[in-house]
């Protein structure tokens, strides 16, 4: 009596089988010749059936632990042109067959790690949902366990966002307006405004505008507007900042606004300081002349 319990592993992206599969089966082999009475034959058949059931249950229990991605759990981001590793746990069976996706360069993991695959120099065609599936093949009972992750390929901004609008010196109560636009990127970036490093509430910002480019990238833009209240200025200065982000990547554009009254005070202070310095130098010169 021989028994063999294995599994099938498959990877696919967006419904297409892309990586590997392995499979096996439970088999019962009677290498001897059955002799004796019908009762003995029936007893032998019952033993064979019992062993077969236990083998099938063993297959089921072996996969019931579940399958998960160890290297990528949940949505992940990789910069265009980079490499990423995908790993499906609980699978070490042989043989393995790998099925490529057109346009995606893949490489097997190191020897002894058949469940790992590397996607190399990824492009936009590599973005999508990847699923690892483990299936027992032990008729008449089949069990399937799978897990999926979403891979996002990031084409970062080629430069800083562009911030236009009010600049330089402003009067108290003057309307401050700004408009910010990002260079093309993917996935769609987030865009927001900050005043002195504090987020601007959405009531003072317009809705985000998204424009698609010919190379399947997105340009985002947004506007902001508010009155120049004195309380918004720190020591007469207000830092207006536009931030564009993709996941943890952040790009900034800033402008420094100066309250008009603060310039007058600074100039007055500078004049007094200059007059005092001239008086001090003159006094020292007189003392030196008197001493000699």
UniProtKB/TrEMBL annotation:
* UniProt keyword list: Membrane, Transmembrane, Transmembrane helix
Gene3D superfamilies from the UniProt entry: Immunoglobulins
Which residues span the membrane?
A: 42-67
Every Immunoglobulin domain range: 73-154
What is the designated name of this protein?
A: Putative beaten path Ic-like
């Amino acid at each position: 009596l021989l028994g063999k319990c294995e599994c099938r592993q498959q990877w696919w992206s967006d419904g297409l089988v892309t990586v590997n599969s392995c499979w096996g089966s439970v088999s019962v082999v009677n290498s001897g010749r059955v002799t004796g009475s019908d009762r003995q034959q029936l007893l032998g058949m019952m033993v064979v059936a019992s062993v077969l059931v236990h083998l099938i249950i063993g297959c089921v229990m072996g996969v019931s632990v579940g399958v998960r991605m160890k290297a990528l759990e949940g949505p992940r981001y990789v910069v265009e042109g980079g490499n990423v590793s995908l790993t499906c746990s609980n699978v070490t069976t042989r043989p393995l067959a790998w099925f490529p996706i057109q346009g995606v360069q893949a490489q097997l993991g190191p020897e002894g790690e058949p469940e790992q695959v590397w996607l190399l120099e990824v492009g936009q065609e590599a973005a999508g949902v990847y699923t690892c599936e483990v299936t027992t093949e032990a008729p008449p009972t089949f069990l399937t366990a799978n897990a999926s992750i979403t891979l996002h390929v990031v084409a970062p901004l080629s430069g800083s966002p562009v911030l236009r609008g009010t600049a330089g010196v402003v009067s108290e109560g003057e309307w401050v307006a700004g408009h910010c636009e990002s260079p093309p990127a993917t996935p769609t970036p987030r865009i927001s405004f900050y005043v002195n490093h504090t987020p601007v509430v959405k009531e003072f910002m317009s809705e985000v505008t998204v424009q698609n480019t010919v190379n399947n990238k997105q340009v985002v833009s947004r506007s902001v507007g508010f009155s120049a209240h004195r309380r918004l200025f720190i020591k007469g200065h207000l830092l207006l900042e536009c931030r564009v982000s993709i996941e943890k990547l952040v790009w900034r554009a800033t402008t420094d606004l100066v309250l008009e009254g603060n310039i007058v005070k600074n100039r007055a202070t500078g004049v007094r300081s200059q007059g005092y310095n001239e008086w001090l130098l003159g006094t020292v010169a007189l003392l030196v002349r008197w001493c000699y």
